[in-house]
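Worked example 3 (structure in, sequence out).
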């Protein structure tokens, strides 16, 4: 019998259904049993906390739990943040066991950049304002450092863009032209340009258009740099780069991100799966494991988030195709395994901590039932260890050697936050409360919160990743803060005058990049309007002249008379027809619809944190 068929059988042998308690008494939360009917979970460890389930089962959790836990989360943030400032700044990260700092992903004071928008979400506008000044004075990207293209994008570019868009709300005195200009936007742009193909030595300059994984910020790609990049390292740019293009007016960012996405799409196997690592020079897959976790994860995330942010049907269609293949080949009893990308045979029956973002992503496409079932599987692993081990062997129901650590990752909490917005199910608050207790109990030390090296004995590592303050604490806080401005459903908004006209901001529908930096989708339209018109005019001019050329060619063909005249350069105003014409006026008459305001067809209708409004709804 093929191994692939043995796995589900093996799961059935070692897994048994879990019985959970009753739902909340107000009848608003769905009955968790609804999700659990088909659920199987490991039985090797008893599932704890029956008392808490009783409490959650019979008390409205909003009464005490929400504000109390929220305050605990806030205290957690400041314990870590103050310690970083005191012991580690200007280094990238805090070393919580030795109470000092070190550079990890570059030399950017990374924790400060990553934590900046969390300060505002926690309501601390004065510290936000101070940090904006500090970053301008201290961060320099002209440095001889080999940096990860992916991490620099999601943490530095994403963090700065989000903070830039939130700075007015945080009381920063913004310059004229904001949000289409500003110091943080300039910094984000500078960092992103270090990754672009403006010379032969930069990350995206490859024959395939897929970027290298590492770039030296001063010298470009090192000679001899490996051309092997993971899938997520290629497909995780569209959110930040399309935002940059919209705000700055330079389409190059969005263009390179789209090319990289298309190349990945074209490289999928016949059964519709992508592998883990690819050679960006040859386009050949080097690691052929297909799954939803490490090395691939945020590629899928950015197809969905890019689709929502840009209202782009094609990106969503790509994701839905992948989703089908993923469900066909990797999905077993609401777990997701790893399979060979060409054959679909199981290669690793393992759940990875990084995969726990998937239920949150499913909620964004409205697949709440599947999301909850998978979430509850993952939650049983959390309860087994008080955290999520990096790898968990599903048939064995235990950790995998050398992958027993928990570096305080956000993914399961992130999914809880999305799903709580979508369902109001109190089980999701229960996970949040458990996470706060575990993290405080196991990982809190005098100088911050330490990575858990081994969840079996709670040994610690001397590291606090910047995503702890960017993501883990932020998602926890948002889970317990229903009235946070981030959760705005469009009932309030701010109106800003820009050089391009009036601009609506802060109405909600924020899209979190994969490092949990919220991007206000409305902002993309503020600066885009005029620039889009310019781009459309240029396109129209190009079309106009190529049309003219083909008509002339047709005429020459039929009449075979008269000398051939070369067309004017597309996009220039040198042709006689364009003299004295205001730029764009003439083509506008011909193709009026292209110059009208951008309409919002597809799911019109932003998906708001777990709520999807379809065309038909
Ligand atoms: C973060 O840097 C991002 O969420 C990334 O997409 C995956 N890894 C970490 C958090 O676990």
């Amino acid at each position: 019998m093929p191994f692939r068929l043995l796995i589900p059988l093996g799961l059935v042998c070692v897994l048994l259904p879990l019985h959970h308690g009753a739902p909340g008494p107000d009848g608003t939360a769905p009955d968790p049993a609804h999700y659990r009917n088909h659920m199987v979970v490991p039985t090797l460890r008893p599932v704890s906390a029956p008392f808490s389930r009783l409490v959650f089962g019979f008390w409205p959790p909003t009464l005490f739990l929400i504000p109390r836990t929220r305050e605990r989360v806030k205290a957690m943030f400041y314990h870590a943040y103050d310690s970083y400032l005191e012991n580690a700044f200007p280094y990238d990260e805090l070393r919580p066991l030795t109470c000092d700092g070190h550079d990890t992903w570059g030399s950017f004071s990374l924790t400060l950049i990553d934590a900046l928008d969390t300060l505002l979400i926690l309501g601390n506008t004065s510290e936000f304002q101070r940090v904006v000044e500090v970053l301008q004075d201290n961060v320099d990207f002209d440095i001889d450092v080999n940096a990860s293209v992916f991490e620099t994008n999601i943490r530095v570019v994403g963090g700065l863009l989000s903070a830039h868009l939130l700075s007015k709300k945080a009381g920063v005195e913004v310059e004229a032209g904001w949000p289409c200009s500003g110091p943080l936007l300039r910094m984000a742009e500078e960092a992103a340009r270090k990754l672009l193909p403006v010379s032969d030595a930069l990350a995206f300059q490859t024959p395939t258009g897929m970027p290298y994984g590492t770039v030296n910020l001063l010298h470009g790609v090192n000679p001899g740099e490996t051309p092997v990049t993971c899938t997520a390292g290629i497909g995780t740019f569209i959110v930040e780069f399309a935002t940059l293009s919209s705000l700055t007016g330079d389409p190059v960012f969005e263009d390179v991100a789209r090319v990289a996405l298309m190349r990945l799409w074209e490289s999928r196997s016949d059964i519709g799966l992508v592998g883990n690592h690819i050679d960006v020079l040859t386009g050949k897959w080097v690691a052929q494991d297909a799954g939803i976790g490490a090395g691939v994860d945020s590629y899928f995330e950015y197809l969905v988030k890019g689709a929502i942010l840009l209202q782009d049907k094609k990106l969503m269609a790509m994701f839905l195709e992948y989703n089908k293949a993923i469900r066909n080949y990797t999905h077993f009893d609401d777990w997701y395994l790893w399979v060979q990308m060409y054959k679909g045979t199981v290669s690793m029956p393992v759940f990875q901590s990084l995969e726990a973002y998937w239920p949150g992503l499913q909620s964004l496409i409205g697949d709440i039932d599947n999301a909850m079932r998978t979430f509850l599987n993952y939650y049983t692993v959390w309860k087994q260890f008080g955290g999520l081990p990096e790898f968990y062997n599903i048939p064995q129901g235990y950790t995998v050697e050398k992958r027993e650590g928990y570096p305080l990752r956000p993914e399961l909490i992130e999914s809880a936050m999305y799903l709580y917005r979508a369902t109001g199910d109190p089980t999701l608050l229960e996970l949040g409360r458990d996470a706060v207790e575990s993290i405080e109990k196991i990982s809190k030390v005098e100088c911050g919160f330490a990575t858990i090296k081994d969840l079996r004995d709670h040994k610690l590592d001397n590291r606090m990743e910047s995503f702890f303050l960017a993501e883990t604490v932020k998602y926890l806080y948002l889970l317990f803060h229903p009235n946070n401005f981030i959760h705005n459903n469009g009932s309030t908004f701010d109106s800003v005058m820009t050089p391009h006209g009036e601009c609506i901001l802060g109405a909600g529908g924020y899209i979190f990049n994969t490092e949990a930096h919220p991007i206000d989708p409305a902002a993309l339209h503020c600066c885009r309007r005029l620039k889009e018109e310019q781009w459309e005019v240029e396109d129209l001019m190009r079309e106009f002249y190529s049309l003219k050329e083909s008509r002339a060619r047709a005429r020459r063909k039929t009449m075979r008379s008269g000398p051939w005249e070369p067309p004017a350069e597309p996009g220039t105003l040198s042709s006689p027809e364009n003299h004295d014409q205001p730029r764009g006026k003439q083509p506008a008459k011909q193709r009026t619809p292209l110059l009208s305001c951008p309409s919002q067809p597809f799911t019109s209708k932003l998906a708001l944190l777990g709520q999807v409004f379809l065309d038909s709804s």
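Notes: The radius of gyration is 26 Å. The chain has a mean pLDDT of 83.
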